[in-house]
Specification:
Blueprint: H1 23-32, E1 37-43, H2 49-58, E2 62-71, E3 88-94, H3 97-112, E4 120-121, H4 123-128, E5 133-136, H5 143-149, H6 153-167, E6 172-176, H7 182-198, E7 202-204, H8 216-227, H9 249-256, H10 260-272, H11 295-320, H12 327-343, H13 347-362, H14 378-382, H15 420-431, H16 447-457, H17 462-470, H18 480-483
Parallel strand pairs: 1-2, 2-4, 5-6, 6-7
Antiparallel strand pairs: 2-3, 3-5
Helix pairs in contact: 1-2, 5-6, 5-7, 8-16, 11-12, 11-13, 13-15, 16-17
């Protein structure tokens, strides 16, 4: 029988320019190898959580949502010390949905309150949001491990005791790792007496940064790209050895066979962690409508008002003989769209978008004409959310909103870059800070760009790299495999 073991310390591509595990490949590999559960713990962020959760559930692998956070040695508000000395690593895993929500708060505060080279929390903040979280003492850069390897055992003991008190004795584990690094052997030996003294359990992990044995070479190049170094540089960040991959239970037993409880604790932790983000539904803020209207009634009222405004331009085009379809076609389409939007309960969504676009126009903030599938909606055109006549250009409403595929409508809106902050301030004040979020976009290295980056880190001449890069077709969705 395969030896039971669950990876609880792992970095994907969302540990930017450090982790090299692609989520799709990672989960597929886990499924093929019969892995029942898997944790992802990015460096200081939760960027991958939803994508990993959904992909893992799809493949029958239990997702454990976590983060390797940076903990300030003192207050998160302090801005002093050298970069490497301003934080310690700590792995936090969400045991419950409450724990996941607390982890979100911790990570967000790390960026908004504690950022100093890295997004940092502190122990005070951790204590406020400890419910539902399981902690692991982390790698060589964890506070407990640092105390041991720098020959300050008392400091290590005190750090472990503090985390035990914050998280609870059943929720804090001393983490053992070994990838052939001598310091890890020293730390593992030092963790055992602390575990006995404080009554803390041990757990073993492998600090996964790439998927398979042999991936250490491309991972090393990735680190060079991230740090702007050349692979030949002696004084640069590097991972020693080739063991930072997704090992099997049997491979982990070869390393930690003398610690069966530390092995089985990985499974016990996985069994405890149960966070399901499936089917969250739509959580839209309330749009207050004037008396005596209902939400749906007010939506139809302002939409038909907008229709009457647009009717003047349609009538002019009709008189010129340039309107492609009769007014009756517009009336039928409007009634059809209103009916679908009301039935799908998106009247409030359209009113919210209509409201802040109206706010921008009234204050002279330039607004784009609209783009994407929303341009196929006559309702959006009547509300001046878009400025493209969908019937004149034969655009299809069902590409935007379809009762057969229930999903929140996606309306892309462009505001003047210099004044978009005014619109954000408006919706924040109107709907409350808790109901407004800004989203991140991730840049990816496309085929041509990655060839140039890799060539630079390998010290190749620009002309040689340029020849290879230009040989890759400049088309969408191009990959290195396709180019070869």
């Amino acid at each position: 029988m395969p030896i039971e073991f669950v990876h609880l310390h792992l970095h994907t591509e969302f540990s930017l320019l450090d982790g090299a595990c692609r989520i799709g490949e990672l989960v597929a590999h886990a499924e093929q190898s019969g892995t029942s559960a898997l944790a992802v713990t990015e460096h200081g962020n939760l960027f991958s959580s939803v994508k990993f959760h959904d992909e893992a559930r799809k493949h029958g692998v239990k997702p454990i949502l976590g983060c390797e956070v940076y903990v300030a040695p003192g207050s998160r508000h302090a801005r002093d010390g050298r970069p490497g000395e301003t934080n310690n690593h700590l792995v936090l895993l969400s045991e419950t949905l409450t724990g996941y929500h607390n982890l979100i708060k911790l990570v967000s505060a790390g960026y908004t309150e504690g950022f100093y080279y890295k997004p940092r929390i502190d122990k005070e903040l951790l204590a406020e949001h400890a419910e539902g979280l399981i902690g692991l003492s982390s790698c060589l850069k964890g506070e407990v491990a640092t105390g041991i390897r720098t020959e300050h055992p008392r400091r290590a003991h005190e750090a472990a005791a503090t985390f035990r008190d914050i998280l609870g004795p059943k929720n804090f584990f001393l983490e053992m790792q070994y990838q052939g690094i001598e310091e890890q052997r020293t730390v593992n030996s030092g963790l055992q007496p602390i575990a006995r003294d404080l009554g803390l359990p041990l757990v073993c992990t492998n600090d996964v940064h790439y998927l398979k044995l042999g991936d250490d070479r491309p991972h090393d190049v990735l680190l060079c790209i991230g740090t702007g170094k050349n692979v030949s540089d002696e004084q640069r960040l590097r991972y020693h050895g080739d063991q930072f991959y997704l090992k099997t239970g049997e491979e982990m037993a070869l390393v930690f066979g003398d610690f069966p409880l530390a092995m089985s604790n990985t499974v016990a932790i996985a069994e405890r962690c149960d966070v399901d983000l499936s089917n969250p539904g739509s959580h839209l803020p309330n749009f207050d409508v004037p008396d005596p209207y209902t939400l749906e009634g007010y939506f139809e009222h302002v939409t038909r008002e907008g229709f009457a405004d647009r009717l003047r331009s349609w009538s002019a085009l009709l008189a010129q003989g340039t309107l492609k379809h009769p007014i009756e076609a517009y009336e039928r389409r409007l009634a059809h769209e209103i009916d679908i939007i009301v039935k799908m309960r998106y009247a409030g969504y359209f009113l919210i978008v209509w409201d802040f676009i109206r706010y921008a126009r009234e204050r002279g903030i330039p607004v784009g004409p609209g783009r994407g599938s929303a341009a196929g909606s006559l309702v959006a055109y009547c509300l001046q959310i878009t400025d493209i006549d969908p019937i004149q250009f034969d655009l299809i409403f069902e590409r935007f909103l379809n009762p057969e595929r229930v999903s929140l409508p996606d309306i892309d809106i462009d505001f003047c870059e210099r004044r978009r902050g005014e619109v954000i301030d408006y919706v924040t004040k109107k709907y409350g800070r808790d109901n407004v979020a800004q989203i991140i976009t991730f840049g990816t290295m496309k085929a041509r760009a990655v060839v140039r980056d890799v060539g630079r880190t390998m010290g190749m001449s620009y002309s040689d790299v340029d020849k290879v890069a230009k040989a890759i077709p400049p088309t969408l969705e191009m990959t290195l495999q396709k180019a070869l």
